[in-house]
Design a protein that fits this description.
It contains 23 helices and 14 strands. The protein is mainly alpha-helical. It starts with 10 loop residues before the first strand and ends with a helix.
């Protein structure tokens, strides 16, 4: 204290103007609630952040990163502060994907009543169908659905083109303009190209060095080597090229491309496209497609989409879907689709992607198993939930030979969580498989006590007194079969197929329904015809019709080796049937090569003569024998 302040300080606010002493009153907190402007004295917890977490409402002081937007992207949960245009509505127009805030009437269903144009959200059963077209969004039904008014192959109302009813003018349909594939008859070939429709075949190319002058095809490949320029596919170079593409090594790529084919296989027998799909390498697939590689190429019957769907290569699946590849292409002998492979591999996101993109949810493999059966059998609960939410029936029949439902497969493998979910979603636990077993019978036989316990906890009567096949189910099956016959007579093939499938679902041992369905599939050159006649033979093993039609089914789907094998079996089971020997002889001739031509013709003549001895009126045997003898064979 200075001498001048002995008799008293001269205060100005909180500070003595004479000696500079400070007192604990009259501080000036106007500019900062926690620091005096005059003397720099501080205090704590005095700011008022109630109205704004980042600015004091008393003094205007600020701070950063204090708002809480977790419960609402545009309204702080701690104060009254708001902001605009922060919600994320791209995945769902009515629910923010960040904070889950909701709003109403924001979806755009103008172009499709069941799918939002902005976010892709699905709203079921909103279409207002008038025949084959929605009156609200003008969407058309697919050609497989009912309601069309067919004039030949084209609906006269909406213009949808079907698979049947084409009016062929040689190789082009006069109604819809569709062209036949190069394997079908009716083309007028000039070299490798049809002069009528422009379709390019596999034979008749006019090579100038390594390019066909007619169709532009590159390289005349013979056993991995171009017959014109000598270019060869080397597995080591394929692997080297793949590494160069991945690392964007342009110098290496430029040096390798003239030496090889982009469709070539590496040392494991896998082309670069398929290897990239396995590795979820979307960038390489884009590069390959930009350089002319077809994304629909197959390895062992499967495309890149099959591989990516089963492996879980999400980036590749997304890209291929954007390129409009065939979502429902079938793979190999088992007729697996990408959706079936994704469901079997527990690829939940890919299952959702495929369904959203329009994949056939009802697709089945060769045995009749669908996506829900694979998921239930393998214990993939989330996939089962996705499929049922997408509209799959929890009681859908799987392998028709065994008449089993998803709950049977889950019970067999001991997946109690899936059994519980299926029961809640309406799965019938009193359904019996072809062996007469309920899900509980199967679970008890396999010792899966957890499954039995779950079923009992649901208070469901598991023991059914209904026989394996009641007269009621047989009557339902026969009615469905008759409805299918009526639909066929009225020219509605798609509806007939649907009724025959319902007949089989009601009674998996309805042999007539299997045969009728298989006959329609043969007309469509559908590989499912093979499954139908295999079941026909299982139910009616003594009927020659099953073996005859199975042979035709293989032949119509270009599986000639299997067709010949089926014909041989036909002759063994029915050795006194003239058609069996005549069919076998015809197939031997059709598949004859230059190397085996002489022996094949001798064998065919032998079988034609045998058919003629059994039935001298057999037209096929008589006609072919006369032709062969006229050729002095």
């Amino acid at each position: 204290m200075g001498l001048s302040c002995l008799l008293g300080h001269k205060w100005e606010g909180c500070i003595c103007t004479t000696c500079g002493a400070i007192r604990d009153q009259d501080h000036d907190w106007s500019k900062n609630c926690e620091k005096c402007v005059k003397c720099n004295t501080t205090r704590s917890d005095q700011h008022d952040w109630a109205k704004n977490c980042e600015q004091c409402s008393t003094c205007g002081a600020t701070r950063l990163n204090q708002h809480n937007w977790s419960s609402n992207c545009e309204h702080c949960s701690k104060c009254e502060t708001t902001r605009s245009n922060q919600h994320e509505w791209s995945k769902n127009c009515e629910q923010c994907s960040i904070c889950k805030a909701t709003r109403t009437d924001q979806h755009d269903f103008t172009k499709d009543c069941e799918k939002c144009e902005r976010c892709g959200s699905i709203c079921k059963s909103q279409h207002q169908w008038s025949g084959c077209q929605c009156t609200k969004c003008k969407k058309k039904k697919s050609f497989r659905e009912q309601g069309h008014q067919w004039v030949g192959c084209k609906c006269s109302v909406c213009g949808t083109v079907g698979e049947l009813g084409h009016d062929w003018d040689w190789c082009v349909c006069k109604i819809c303009g569709k062209k036949k594939s190069f394997r079908e008859e009716g083309h007028s070939w000039v070299g490798c190209k049809c002069s009528r429709c422009g379709t390019v075949g596999e034979m008749g190319h006019d090579w100038v060095r390594c390019e066909c002058r007619r169709c532009g095809k590159k390289h005349n490949w013979v056993n991995g080597k171009c017959a014109s320029c000598g270019k060869r596919v080397d597995p080591a170079l394929v692997e080297k090229l793949y590494r160069a593409i991945k690392s964007r090594d342009d110098a290496t790529i430029d040096s390798l491309l003239p030496q090889m084919d982009l469709y070539g296989n590496d040392k494991d027998g896998i082309p670069i496209l398929i290897r990239a799909a396995l590795n979820d390498d979307c960038a390489t697939i884009k590069w390959l497609m930009a350089h002319g590689v077809d994304p629909k190429m197959r390895v062992d019957g499967g495309t890149a989409l099959h591989i990516a769907a089963n492996r879980g290569s999400g980036n590749v699946v997304s890209f291929l879907l954007s390129q409009k590849v065939d979502l429902n292409a079938v793979e190999g002998f088992k007729l697996l689709t990408p959706l079936l492979l994704a469901a079997a591999g527990n690829q939940t996101r890919i299952v959702e992607q495929l369904i959203e993109a329009g994949a056939d949810k009802m697709s089945r493999d060769r045995s009749g198993m669908g996506a829900i059966h694979y998921a239930a059998s393998n214990g993939h609960l989330r996939v089962v939930m996705i499929l049922i939410e997408a509209g799959i029936d929890p009681n859908q029949i799987g392998e028709r030979e065994f008449n089993a439902r998803p709950i049977h497969y889950a019970a067999l493998k001991g997946h109690a969580d899936i059994v519980e979910y299926l029961v809640k979603k309406g799965a019938k636990v009193d359904y019996r498989d072809a062996g007469g077993n309920t899900p509980q019978d199967i679970a008890e036989a396999k010792g899966h006590h957890n499954v039995v316990a779950v079923l009992k906890e649901q208070n469901v009567a598991l023991k059914s007194e209904t026989p394996v096949q009641t007269s009621n189910t047989k009557q339902t099956s026969e009615k469905s079969k008759q409805m299918g016959i009526d639909a066929y007579r009225n020219g509605n093939i798609d509806l007939a197929i649907e009724w025959f499938e319902r007949a089989i679902e009601s009674d998996a041992n309805n042999g007539d329904a299997w045969g009728l369905l298989g006959s329609l599939y043969i007309k469509q050159k559908n590989k499912r015809s093979i499954v139908c006649f295999e079941n026909f033979i299982r139910i009616l093993p003594k009927s020659p019709d099953g073996y005859q039609q199975l042979t035709i089914a293989y032949s119509k789907t270009d599986q000639f080796a299997q067709a010949k094998e089926a014909a041989r079996k036909f002759t063994k089971v029915h050795p006194k049937n003239a058609d069996s020997w005549a069919m076998l002889a015809s197939l031997i001739l059709e598949n004859s090569t230059k190397a085996t031509e002489s022996s094949d013709i001798k064998e065919a003549i032998q079988y034609f003569e045998k058919a003629n001895r059994i039935d001298p009126s057999n037209e096929l045997a008589k006609g072919m024998l006369s032709k062969l003898k006229a050729l002095n064979l």
